[in-house]
Specification:
With about 70 residues, this protein is mainly beta.
């Protein structure tokens, strides 16, 4: 993706998510931040304009107390 010469992004190291991919393991209308495997593609300007691929697997991660009442 080509950005304008003066593009500086959001100034954050985790934003903006330019492309967001989810799997078919979840419902078609799943919340994008809580899926089986979410993939973000970003271009982080604070790091010198370096493309970043980040993966997150919230649904299958093991967390203490998950599912307990």
């Amino acid at each position: 993706m080509k950005c304008s010469a003066n593009w500086v992004g959001s100034g954050e190291t985790y934003h903006p998510h330019e492309f967001h991919f989810i799997t078919t393991e979840d419902d078609p209308y799943v919340r994008p931040a809580f899926t089986h495997l979410t993939t973000y593609v970003e271009n982080n300007y604070p790091n010198g304009g370096i493309p970043v691929v980040a993966l997150q697997d919230s649904r299958t991660s093991t967390r203490p107390g998950l599912g307990k009442i």
